[in-house]
Amino acid sequence: MHKGIRVLLGTGLLTLALPLSAWARIVLLHTNDIHCGVNKNLPLARIAAERKELAKTEEGVLLADAGDAIQGEPLGKLTQGKAMVKLLNAAGYDFAIPGNHEFDYGMDTFLKLSKQLKCGYTSANFVDLKTGKTVLPAYRLFRFPKRTIALVGVTTPGTLVSSTPKYFQDKKGHFIYGFSEDKDGTKLYEQIQKAVDEARAKGAGTVILVGHLGSDGSIPVWSSEALIRHLTGVDGVIDGHSHEQYVRQVPDKTGRTIPLAQTGTKLQKLGKMIIEDDGTVHSSLVTELPAPDPNVEKLVKQELDKVDKELAKPVGVAQVALVQNLDGKRAVRNGETNLTDFVADAFRHTFKAQVAIVNGGSFRAGLPKGTWTSRDLMTMFPFGNQAVLRSVSGQQLLDALELSASLYPEENGGFLQVSGMTYTVDATIPSTVELDERGNFVRVRGERRVRDVMIDGKPIDPKEDYLVTGTSYILGDGGNGYSMLRDTTLIAEPGLSDMDVVAAYVKSLNGVVGPGYEDPRGQGRIHIVK
Asked: Residue 322 CB: number of other CB atoms within 10 A?
């Protein structure tokens, strides 16, 4: 926190008592989707230094994070997010919201981390369904001598399907938490407008939304731009989730344009939203920062050193690089690569299954040519998803593939990579997949995009049952909307993580990976008609 700030907690209020001086402006620095990349691009220690330097000259400085900070690399997974919370505290964050991946270590862990984070988490639409009340403060007020700033938190309703659904359910599988989700976005719009109006009523002269909603590839009615177009009384929006870098002007419900900004991922840029003394708000993305704060730099090094020994253990040697990206894009989310073929093969081999399905959002990095270590595998698979084997009908697989292809050509974390199976996506046919208000599959109401589905070289039989392996996130928990797979029969759940499955497959190959995976674009298991 800024030196001299007095913090009053209770109903989400923060009161800042700063030295009385001539009013100048408030600078709101912001990050999003750090995904534990504290030493990548713009090191966190330099962002901390920027905050301190600005505090010497500006009337007020705030540092906010728009979600997905504590998961994504070994630093997060090996400490269940604790190390990242420690670093966010050291950097001086004044405000933070939970993105969908803040929940990846389970609800109990999230709530503990929220208490350990000095500024706490804020979200206006994370709701306890039993009470109808928000689990966290909906907004926080920062009172300066001549202006009060309200920061309102917004978490994507897609969290229910993009994180692990069971974390938001009771033991009977009933949802006990929600994010104001419905088919047309009305619940979200009304919930956030309520928070904005309440903040205004309590004296906020400027209201900024800090959201984890996204734009490219996000569910349209829950995107940041859709939300803005249904609100009044908001002066600026900080966003995350879709890993984009931009500053845009977007009209609100009245036609008034306001700035919308997002900084990419892993600290590619630092956002700087400035609130002038007349209330004007404008945004920019910056990369020129001062030298690192020595204390934060030292702490970052200490935390990273703790995991280095475990992660340095060799796993195997690759004769080829297995890639996540093609042509500068995350190809695993709308197509096939040699990496996805290799991993799907690893699942099918380990479980002796007929079919393996792995969602593209599981992959967070490729695997390099040369010696692989545990660090490489954990960086690729930071979630620690459990591997399972289930009995799935042909019809359930067909429905799953249709959901997988529903957003093509947009990126889709639920896009299914396969082994033991081939299929064609006819993208000239509009998707007719119908979802419920939580983003879960309901039915295909018209012509299907997916055809020519083959299993072991034979046409799929909708009435036949197949042994299918993958992660419990998709097969069992129904992540990414795969509700048709939630109640399939469990055959085996031996306690292996996705990382363990890959390591076991490499061992079965005598530690050498290469033959059969030379082509970066894969083996032609997924054919797309554009």
From this structure: 25
Residue 22 has pLDDT above 50, yes or no: no
Q: How far apart are the C-alpha atoms of 75 and 93, rounded to whole Å?
A: 19
Per-residue model confidence (pLDDT) at position 6 = 36
Domains and CATH numbers, the chain: 27-305 (3.60.21.10), 313-529 (3.90.780.10)
Instruction: For residues 111-124, give the mean pLDDT.
Output: 98
For 93, residues 6+ apart whose C-beta sits below 8 A from its C-beta are 63, 64, 65, 117, 118, 119
Count, in order, helices (H) and strands (E) of the chain. 12, 31
Cis bond upstream, residue 409 (ω within 30): yes
Q: Is the pTM of this model over 0.90?
A: no
Q: Read off the pLDDT of each residue in 200-224 and give the average, rounded to a whole number.
A: 92
Q: Using one digit for the tens of pLDDT, what is the confidence trace for 443-489? A: 999 999 999 999 999 999 999 999 999 998 999 889 999 999 988 99
Please give the pLDDT value at position 419: 98
C-alpha closest to that of 72 among 36, 105, 46:
36
Q: What is the Cα–Cα distance from 245 to 269, expressed in whole angstroms?
A: 8
φ/ψ of 143, rounded to 5, equals: -95, 120
d(CA 479, CA 453): 22
Which amino acid is located at 259 in the chain? P
Looking at the DSSP assignment, which residues form a beta bridge with residue 470? Answer: 388
From 413, 421, 420, 411, select the one nearest 450 (Cα to Cα).
Answer: 421
Structure token pair of residue 432: 């007719």
DSSP annotation of 365: S
The two structure tokens encoding residue 437: 């208000």
Tens of pLDDT along 259-292? 999 999 999 999 999 999 999 999 999 999 999 9
Indicate the SS3 state at residue 23.
coil
Return the structure tokens found at 501.
């499955």
CB contact at 8 A, 136 and 121: yes
The 10 Å CB-count burial string (b at 16+, else e) for 381-417 is bbbbbbbbbbebbbebbbbbbbbbbbbbeebbbbbbb
Going from the C-alpha of 202 to that of each of 124, 139, 140, 425, 524, the distances in angstroms are 16, 11, 11, 53, 59
Q: Alpha-carbon Rg of the chain, whole angstroms?
A: 23
Q: How many whole angstroms separate alpha carbon 104 and alpha carbon 450? A: 31
pLDDT in tens, 298-331: 999 999 999 888 889 899 999 999 999 999 899 9
Looking only at Cα atoms, what is the longest distance across the chain? Answer: 77
